[in-house]
Amino acid sequence: MLKNIYSPVSGALAQERVMEIIANNLANVNTVGFKGDAVTFTLLEPEPYKNYPTPLPPANYKVNLDDIAPLHGNEMAYVGVADVVRDNSQGPAITTHNSTDLMIEGEGYFAVHTNEGVRYTRSGDMTIGPDGALMDKAGFPVLGEKGVIYVRSNEFQINHAGEIYQDGQLVDRLAIYRFADQTQLQRVGNNHLFYGGAPEQMGRVEHPAVRQGFLEGSNVNAIKNLTSMIIAHRSYEAYQKAVSNFDQMMEKSSNSIGEVRV
Questions:
Q1: Contact (CB, 8 A) for 44 and 6
Q2: pTM more than 0.85
């Protein structure tokens, strides 16, 4: 009976993880360039002989062990979280008419130089630092093909290919990267992503599509996520009730077995 509790417990833990992911999505529904996450589940395979010894019948008692093996061991299947998958679909375009606001259409990520190295982001709400460097909202310089991009003022133009012009002169071109396996991009805070994959699986986007004066909004659907949170919460409550019922059954069984009848 005891091991029967672990099935609803595993389901409750999985739904708890779902609610954590949805809460993070909703918290970033207005974050520029944010990509929402979704949870996928997997069935955890049973392990019949790992945790319990196989019983041996008396020598004079002939029985097929296959008939009694299912009564021992951890043969019940449980649910678990298989992966957290990022939705890399395009977010909505937000018009700002601000020269330091940039949006990438299609594939690609901006590159910024942080204290821990180069990080990548879809967030294009940039600012200009005191020294004229183009920086992201976290205060890290944005990289171009020549290195850190420097502009003297907000009076600059960026064409569709990411080329930056000021006073009619080419300043630099935005370094926009693509990744063959985007699952290797990990969130590290400040709307930045760290790439931990093979270097040969990343490269520059040859023909980027950049729009100046626009921002890419979060691709999180608030209504859909709120609905999913309600479903996850109700599922969690159902699993919690199942655990409580099993606990009451075991308590009653223990008390009945231990009761002395005259």
A1: no
A2: no
